[in-house]
Design goal:
Subcellular location: Cell membrane
Oligomer: single chain
Membrane topology: Multi-pass membrane protein
Radius of gyration: 25 Å
InterPro entries: MetI-like (IPR000515), MetI-like_sf (IPR035906)
Number of strands: 0
Main location: membrane
Largest sheet: none
Shape: globular
Strand content: under 5%
Keywords: Cell membrane, Membrane, Transmembrane, Transmembrane helix, Transport
Length: 288
């Protein structure tokens, strides 16, 4: 009698799990469909890109990738790729260094007006980027930095990303202070405690900062469009737009092929550090 009731109780649980798995699978297919469409469209001939709604191409047009690898405006795709990596790498390095230093000051050091300054920093998260775009452009224009990579990299070394500062502050507040107190007794100053004790323990939050910075900078189109004029300095993001304007007719197939190529570094970067991303978000930004 007991075994029959136990089996009856387990049956709804199994059906519930099956429904949950099917729902997750359906959601996964919905989210992956745009990626599958992008891959399929990059292999379609020009007349099928708009005229046909079929997911699979009727004829594989590998010449789309050949045209994409030739680049745009006499600039090879390898030059465009190196420009994107330079800007994204510089932004990652700047955010990791500056935001970690600012976060350590807010989380561990005691100084006057720390609370109001931290509140003011948090308030800048709600400030639209377009509100500071013109003053920032005027500053960089006066400094002669327009049409260079400095406007896209230099602000990252000044801890201007308040979101990442807040993220790292939340993580550092969860670290035990006894470690720094013991180091202070042994003669460690604030900088040595930061670099030898706090910074290694903050690795998940730093990797989270690096991942989001890389993705946001790599996909940034508007800022790069404002500051970069020379085609030799273009990134893959800018090249995608200019690829359409390079001829009188829009070459959608090669444009989608270049989109696939531009997507690969982001996917590889995310897959390499996704474990640290989940750990960093769970240990920092979600805590009170």
């Amino acid at each position: 009698m007991t075994s029959v009731s136990t089996a009856a109780a387990r049956k709804p649980v199994r059906w519930g799990r099956l429904a949950l798995h099917l729902g997750c699978l359906a959601a996964l297919l919905v989210m992956l469909y745009p990626l599958a469409w992008l891959l399929a469209t990059s292999l379609k001939p020009a007349d099928e890109v708009i005229a046909s709604l079929d997911l699979l191409p009727g004829h594989l047009e590998w010449s789309n990738y050949e045209t994409a690898f030739e680049g745009v405006n006499d600039v090879s795709i390898w030059r465009l790729l190196s420009n994107s990596l330079l800007i994204a790498g510089g932004a990652v390095l700047g955010n990791v260094i500056s935001c970690s230093l600012a976060a350590y000051a807010f989380a561990r050091l005691r100084f006057r007006f720390r609370g109001p300054m931290f509140a003011f920093m948090i308030a800048t998260i709600m400030l639209p980027h377009h509100a500071i775009l013109i003053p920032q452009y005027i500053i960089f224009n006066k400094l002669g930095m327009v049409n260079t990579y400095w406007p896209l990299i230099l602000p990252k070394f000044l801890a201007t990303e308040a979101f990442f500062v807040f993220l790292i502050v939340q993580f550092m507040r969860g670290l035990p202070r006894e470690l720094e107190e013991a180091a202070r007794i042994d003669g460690c100053g604030p900088f040595r405690s930061f670099f030898q004790i706090v910074l290694p323990l903050t690795r998940p939050a730093l990797i989270t900062t690096a991942i989001f910075t890389f993705i946001w900078t790599w996909n940034d189109f508007f800022s790069q469009l404002i500051y970069l004029f020379d085609p030799d300095k273009f990134t893959l993001t800018l090249a995608l737009r200019s690829f359409v304007d390079a001829s009188s007719q829009s070459a959608f197939g090669p444009m989608f092929a270049m989109s696939v190529i531009a997507l690969l570094p982001i996917v590889l970067f995310f897959l390499a550090f996704q474990r640290f991303l989940v750990e960093g978000m769970a240990s920092s930004g979600l805590k009170g």
